[in-house]
Design a protein that fits this description.
Length: about 475
């Protein structure tokens, strides 16, 4: 408690950029340590993104990134370009492949904390800036974004950099950052545009600000030209059309479930924003830009394609709004106490949301190490409607890469790119939900719930169940010794 007060007292007399640099170093160290400590398998979109990064590093002349050699144009290419550059720089480090892909997100996550500080400091003062950065950086979604090899941390960096540039009067830089954001996740550009437009409402510079938004369609046009020249324009247009359909609600039940996810992943900040918004007196017009982004968090869940990490764009607004309310407290000690309590609650939510560490890649690989010299098949039952045929056709049934499934997103495999020679006996097999695998010495099947009828999958008659290893079911040949391979 005294230490936090001392920090606040020192920060009051320190230049903003000096504090921003200190926050960057602090959270870069924190996020990087968490990445290295967890060493968990890839989750969600990390799998196909890491594969695309690896392919682009091997052949950057393709310009538009591929997935398993195919131009899918799932997203614009800037994220793959940037993370490929980091991968080339970091690949020599003696670290697990997963950590190498994730470390750039830690850097952008730390920069984001510094940008939140700079924006809040410029708008509401030093104490609000410090509190905003600390609340933002410890929020669960911020930690998730900064410790995964996904687009959210980098996208938020571009959004916050654009906001800071406009707030600081640097419209040219702001235009550039908005254009770059379009080249990563073009729908995300709506959040900073909303903030910036409201911030300059009734400002004599508003016409110039609105004119600067021309960089958005210009960047979109550049992306389509690149897809036409180096990739697949049809895929690019198809995925843009899919993105446009994302905001459409699907059902009331689905929307209610989305709101449950919102409150679970943003507690306590979202609840406090609602309570303080109703029961505190403040000038809503003066804070219209921040309030609008806060409200966006309660609009996004109406989307039929809602995913919790879309809320990444709203966490800075939550942090700034709450910090503004804290900054209004008269006593510095009370301010520090409440801030410390909120930070502790954020950290508790991180512990609860992340739960125990996921099985490490080394743990999963150990299953196959025990089977060395035998034919070992890794089986992924594909759910109905899950395609990814280019990946399946290119890598399925081969021993060129050792494959591990992420722990959450059934049907999406990721690839390890190191120590392939150790797993020459491992074959990856992709099966539809009603297909049967061939006989082998050992078979490892990924099933989040082995008894679930949803997958409608069973081992061939020549195989028998040996044991379960977390989400993996291990099978051996019928009639073989009862001795099971041990890790």
């Amino acid at each position: 408690m005294p230490a936090l007060q001392d920090i606040l007292k020192w920060s009051h007399h320190s230049p903003a950029w000096q504090l921003a640099a200190a926050l960057l170093v602090l959270f870069l160290a924190a996020y990087s340590t968490l990445i290295l400590a967890r060493n968990s398998p890839f989750v969600y979109d990390e799998g196909w993104l890491s594969l695309s990064i690896k392919e682009f590093c091997a052949n950057p002349s393709i310009v538009v990134p591929t997935v398993a050699g195919e131009h899918l144009e799932l997203k614009p290419p800037l994220f793959i370009w940037v993370y490929s550059g980091f991968h080339i720089l970091l690949a020599w480090l003696p670290l697990p492949a997963e950590s190498v892909f994730r470390l750039p997100s830690a850097l952008f996550g730390a920069i984001n904390a510094s940008l939140v500080f700079l924006i809040a400091d410029r708008m509401y003062g030093r104490r609000a800036g410090i509190a905003s950065a600390l609340l933002f950086a410890t929020a669960y979604i911020s930690v998730f974004s900064a410790t995964t090899a996904m687009m959210e941390s980098f996208s938020l960096f571009l959004a916050l950099a654009a906001i800071w540039s406009y707030v600081d009067g640097r419209l040219g830089y702001g235009m550039a950052f908005l254009g770059m954001l379009v080249m990563v996740k073009w729908l995300y550009v709506g959040a900073p545009v909303l903030f910036i437009a409201l911030h300059f409402l009734r400002d004599r510079r508003l016409p110039h600000v609105l004119l600067s938004f021309a960089s958005i369609p210009a960047a979109l046009g550049i992306y389509l030209l690149l897809a036409f020249a180096f990739g697949s324009l049809d895929n690019a247009l198809g995925n843009l059309a899919l993105d446009i359909s994302r905001p459409v609600p699907v059902s009331m039940a689905g929307t209610m479930n989305n709101f449950v996810v919102v409150f679970l992943t943003t507690f306590p900040m979202s609840v406090l924003v609602i309570l303080l918004g109703f029961f505190c007196r403040f000038d809503a017009w003066k804070e219209r830009d921040v309030i609008a982004l806060c409200l966006l968090a309660f609009v996004i869940p109406f989307s039929g394609y809602f995913i919790f990490w879309y809320l990444t764009l709203t966490i800075p607004a939550f942090a700034i709004f709450l910090s503004r309310r804290l900054e209004e407290l008269d006593h510095r000690a009370l301010f520090a106490l409440v801030l410390l309590g909120l930070i502790c609650m954020n950290m508790l939510m991180n512990a609860l949301a992340m739960g125990p560490f996921q099985p490490s890649s080394e743990d999963a690989k150990a299953i196959f190490i025990s089977m060395k010299g035998k034919d070992a098949y890794f089986v992924e039952p594909l759910l109905p409607g899950v395609g990814w045929l280019p990946i399946n056709e290119k890598y399925g049934g081969t021993s060129k890469s050792f494959l591990l499934l992420d722990q959450f997103n059934t049907g999406f495999l990721f690839y390890r790119f190191d120590d392939r020679s150790d797993y020459g006996n491992v074959h990856a097999v992709f099966l539809a939900y009603n297909e049967t695998a061939q006989c082998a010495d050992y078979m490892v099947v990924h099933l989040p719930d082995y008894a679930s009828s949803e997958y409608n999958w069973s081992a061939p008659p020549c195989m028998r169940f040996l044991r379960a290893e977390g989400n993996y079911a291990v099978f051996g040949p019928v009639g073989a010794s009862d001795a099971m391979p041990s890790k």
